[in-house]
Amino acid sequence: MTREQLVKHVFGLKPQAPITTSQWQIIGRISTIAFCLCITVLLIEPFIIIIWTVFAADDEAILVIFGINFIFVIFGLDTYISLASRRAHLIDDTILVPDLKSAYSQLIWKTLKFTVVGTFIFDLLTGLTSFDHLTLVQELAKPDNLIDALEHSLILNIVFGISEARRIRKQH
User: Fold this and answer.
1) Could you give the C-alpha distances from 164 to 54, 99, 122, 150, 154, in angstroms and in order?
2) Model-level pTM?
3) pLDDT tens digits, residue range 43-85?
4) Could you give the CA distance from residue 18 to residue 3 in angstroms, rounded to a whole number?
5) 15, 37, 57, 161: which could join 111 in a potential S-S bond, CB 3.0 to 4.6 Å?
6) How many Cα atoms occupy the beta-carbon half-sphere of 134 within 13 Å?
7) CB 81 within 8 A of CB 34
């Protein structure tokens, strides 16, 4: 994958169209701000870990780092890049449909499917990072873990579903 293909993939640009000079300038500005956000999070993380280990005094510091990075990438970095790309008019991600009712119905089913898949992924991550000295199958089958995984997946997919629903427009 070339640099231009990677940039098109990350910023959601059409693969067929070449990137113009003005688009490269906008991409550079967005990338610089995203890099500054990453540096800020990396500088703040050690202080959070120190406070966490002083007050919590347990072995979950690595999970806290993982959680901070995961939340930052999903909700911070990805959201910033997509919003900045839309505001700069790099992408037009409007979805034109002839029938709004069927489009929303398909979106609801898509969100439900991703919620089911996300529940299993969150449950698997919980099982793999657990320190309870249980087998993986026992950890995956714990009702508390399943409920937590379902809650996390549902919240995440509702947010993604709402952002997708905002892009749907009726075709005239």
Assistant:
1) 41, 16, 22, 20, 15
2) 0.61
3) 988 888 888 777 776 667 777 787 788 888 877 888 888 888 8
4) 12
5) 161
6) 14
7) yes
